[in-house]
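Before drawing any conclusions, I looked closely at one protein's amino acid sequence and its backbone structure tokens, quoted below without any editing.
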Amino acid sequence: MEPRPGAALTGAMVVLTLTTGMVEAVSFLVLGPVFTAVQTGNLLLLGFAVAGEGGLSLAAPALSLGGFAVGAVLGARLESSLEPRGPLRFPGGWFSGGLAAEAALLTVAGLAALRPGAHGAVTVLVATAMGLRNVTTLRVGVPDLTTTVATRSLTGLLAPLGRDGRISADTAGRLRRTAAVAAMFAGGLLGAWLLREGAAASALLFAVAATVPAAAAAHALLRRRENRVPGPGPTH
């Protein structure tokens, strides 16, 4: 089943963006400093660590980058096999299947986080899940909603203020960009607040692991409702 852009899919992508903020709160504030979804940040942290500046760990960003790479490769293989003509079948097709695999990895990461001193293993598992997530969202291709970065969305919001006519300023685009930026901020804020209030990193990972398939299920339900909406009747 090939997801098509629409209200249902856009809503699911916004929810996934919010979960990224929560995941990165755990990654940076508990496991790090390291990122598991925003690999641009890891490339910079790795460069800083190699230069020996800032007292940064070389292992953490390297583990995250490695896990992310594995997740992206395995995710591409998995979701290709869940295509309509692929050898595997999953309710909801490759989109739901990819998100289910991501949720499974996050659940294992949450279990690993229950053990003291398992930061490296948790980092690898979460980064693998985020690598898989990026394959899923890349295949979907909803404009302005990659779910793991908000830089382009923020730029798309600001550039029209400078009267750049080459960057779309349509209402739908503005809404998607606003939702992407707001969801990323809200997820980071929520994750940081929960950690400050004493929530365990494992609890946040379990929460995200439950939210991801819930977003997929809600998308499938809303899409069925969208498809049942009758079109305009014949005119005479």
